[in-house]
Amino acid sequence: MSYDAETTVVHDPADRATAVTVSGYLSSLAIFVSFVGMIWHPLRLVVPALVVALVASGMAKGKLQLAAVLIGAVCLFLGLTFAVATGHALW
Q1: What is the rounded distance in angstroms from the CA atom of residue 5 to the CA atom of residue 2?
Q2: pLDDT in tens, 7-53
Q3: Given its phi and psi angles, is residue 41 left (phi above 0), alpha (psi -120 to 50 degrees) or beta?
Q4: Which pTM was predicted?
Q5: 3-state helix, strand, coil in the chain (%, to 5)
Q6: Which among 83, 27, 24, 73 is positioned nearest to 47, based on CA atoms?
Q7: Residue 19 exposed, middle or buried by CB count within 10 Å (0-12, 13-18, 19+)
Q8: Which H/E stretch holds residue 58?
């Protein structure tokens, strides 16, 4: 595929709105799974939730996406700490 320097890419505003909407849903899903994973198998649930949160933050920049990444990181830390302290399974 050849690239022409004169070619311009036109982005539809509806595509932007769709990306922001999907990113919001992915972020809220990542937050929910992070909280559940903090209590039950942190490595099995929180790590994939962090990946989903990072994908969502790559799709659209916003406060919810930032919150999803930060909450996921805190839940991973606390989940691993609680699991090691109480002797529960990490995986």
Answers
A1: 10
A2: 555 567 777 788 899 999 999 999 999 999 999 889 999 999 999 99
A3: left
A4: 0.81
A5: 75, 0, 25
A6: 73
A7: middle
A8: helix 42-59
